Q: What sequence folds into this?
């Protein structure tokens, strides 16, 4: 087969296909556990919302309304769902690619693996930024509280 300029190809040996298949099995395991955990979080959120609604007191829980708690749980479930979906799709397409040696399936698999890592990377950046902001707020609050305690 002749090489066409501009098109790069990679051939995988049998050992690499075995390693890719093992990776697929572990990613499927982690994706299924993630879906189970997402379901448990969703059920827990529904039970929490029911509990907060039925046993509603005059004062909101720590100044937070029940609706805000419910929305927070649903947002967390939604955020957690997508990386598990990408990991699951990577695993399914990798399985198809290893069985049929179809290059289009492996391309789809790597597309979902890329989406998974991009999503996790962005989530990590957001979490680090939130941690940094909360640290500055905590330090500022501590400085302010220290000034109040001295009577100055």
A:
């Amino acid at each position: 087969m002749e090489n066409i300029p501009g098109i790069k190809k990679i051939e995988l040996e049998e050992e690499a296909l075995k390693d890719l298949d093992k990776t697929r099995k572990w990613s499927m395991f982690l994706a299924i556990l993630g879906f189970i955990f997402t379901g448990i979080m969703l059920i827990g959120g529904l039970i929490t919302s029911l509990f907060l609604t039925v046993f509603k007191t005059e004062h909101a829980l720590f100044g937070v309304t029940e609706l805000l708690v419910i929305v927070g749980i649903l947002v967390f479930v939604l955020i957690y769902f997508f990386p598990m979906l990408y990991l699951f799709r990577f695993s399914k397409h990798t399985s198809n690619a290893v069985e049929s040696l179809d290059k289009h399936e492996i391309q789809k698999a790597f597309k979902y693996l890329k989406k998974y890592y991009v999503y996790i990377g962005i989530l990590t950046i957001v979490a680090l930024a939130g941690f940094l902001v909360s640290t500055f707020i905590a330090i500022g609050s501590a400085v302010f509280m220290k000034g109040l305690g001295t009577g100055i």
In short: The chain has a mean pLDDT of 87. The chain has one domain: 14-149. The longest helix spans residues 103-149.
